[in-house]
């Protein structure tokens, strides 16, 4: 098999064609999804190419179809409870692409158990010019490593930057600072923090901004006021009760996402703790359902329309040959009824 891989690297689709005793044109059509190839033959070609370690070469124009005007949008398919707030970006993203004469093809990709070379296959079979990769595909995820290796024009929302890769992010540190400042302005001083996965950049940034706001008021946030979560509503339920039990003087809670905030409100209400009468709560993300909770949730909202528009503009820059870069867009605080002023 090692000998075969070497020959493929040297000969490209010619090596695949020789192995299967097929014409180069047939193999090319099969790998690029062109009409007119027997389905059984197409499958045999694709399986053989994958087994031989064949990856289409961008410079040979086998990966990206110039002039196709099609952009791949890759969305995570979660096998666990997760926010679907990114759905709100689909429409503005498509509208901005069309403004530049482009159209989007949406691909749902498993977040866990990512199929090897899935990005390559999608780009090749649809002759895509570039791609936009949604959260939570970070630099450590195989799809982003694949995009960087292929040097395909790519924009993401997870701070991954390369020569052919740009990123537009929501300013999570600023968002955390907004949440902290709002709670402080309402008189709260003992404030819990419900964290998401601690290794994630967005969690580190949100908590850092929150702590900065407290330090500006002369308050150092105590580690005992931080509880772990995993962004699920169930973790919010569990951790909120743990924080209340271990910190009876706590008057407010900042949650690193809206799902955990919702889980917290549900659990607190079940335990007879009034929100916001006894405990004020702030969420993060600005998911659309937060306006219809009981009480309606105060949250830090991503500027999804601005982020979508900027992502397309950065992709156009890449398609025009410019180098990848990073931009940050400020979120906004949406004030609702889950915060009460603390009366001492």
From TrEMBL:
Alphabetical keyword list: DNA-binding, Transcription, Transcription regulation
InterPro entries reported for this sequence: HTH_LacI (IPR000843), LacI/GalR-like_sensor (IPR046335), Lambda_DNA-bd_dom_sf (IPR010982), Peripla_BP_I (IPR028082)
UniProt KW Acetylation keyword: no
CDD domains: HTH_LacI (cd01392), PBP1_LacI_sugar_binding-like (cd06267)
GO molecular function: DNA-binding transcription factor activity; transcription cis-regulatory region binding
Keyword Transcription regulation in annotation: yes
Sequence ranges assigned to domain HTH lacI-type in this UniProt record: 13-65
Domain of life the protein comes from: Bacteria
Pfam families from the UniProt entry: LacI, Peripla_BP_3
Name under which the protein is recorded: LacI family transcriptional regulator
Species this chain originates from: Cohnella lupini
């Amino acid at each position: 098999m090692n000998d075969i891989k070497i020959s493929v690297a040297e000969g490209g689709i010619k090596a695949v064609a020789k192995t299967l005793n097929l014409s180069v044109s047939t193999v090319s059509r099969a790998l690029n999804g062109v009409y007119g190839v027997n389905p059984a033959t197409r499958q045999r070609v694709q399986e053989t190419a994958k087994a031989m370690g064949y990856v289409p070469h961008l410079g040979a124009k086998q990966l990206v179809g110039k002039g196709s005007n099609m952009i791949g949008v890759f969305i995570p398919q979660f096998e666990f409870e997760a926010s679907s707030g990114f759905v709100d970006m689909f429409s503005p993203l498509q509208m901005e692409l069309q403004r530049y004469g482009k159209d989007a093809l949406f691909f749902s990709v498993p977040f866990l158990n990512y199929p090897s070379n899935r990005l390559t296959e999608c780009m090749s079979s649809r002759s895509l010019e570039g791609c936009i990769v949604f959260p939570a595909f970070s630099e450590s995820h195989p799809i982003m490593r694949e995009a960087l290796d292929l040097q395909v024009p790519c924009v993401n929302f997870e701070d991954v930057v390369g020569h052919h890769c740009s990123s537009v992010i929501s300013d999570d540190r600023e968002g955390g600072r907004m949440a902290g400042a709002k709670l402080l302005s309402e008189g709260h001083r003992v404030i819990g923090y419900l964290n998401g996965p601690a290794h994630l950049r967005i969690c580190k940034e949100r908590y850092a901004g929150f702590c900065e706001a407290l330090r500006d008021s002369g308050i150092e946030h105590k580690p005992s006021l931080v509880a772990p979560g995993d962004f699920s509503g169930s973790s919010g339920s569990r951790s909120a009760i743990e924080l209340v039990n271990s910190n009876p003087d706590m008057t407010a809670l900042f949650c690193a996402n809206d799902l955990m905030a919702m889980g917290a409100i549900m659990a607190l209400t079940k335990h007879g703790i009034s929100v916001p009468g006894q405990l004020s709560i702030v969420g993060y993300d600005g998911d659309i359902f937060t306006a219809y909770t009981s009480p309606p949730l105060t949250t830090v909202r991503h500027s999804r329309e601005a982020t979508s528009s900027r992502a397309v503009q950065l992709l156009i820059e890449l398609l025009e040959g410019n180098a990848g870069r990073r931009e940050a867009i400020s979120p906004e605080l949406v004030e609702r009824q889950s915060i009460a002023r603390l009366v001492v």
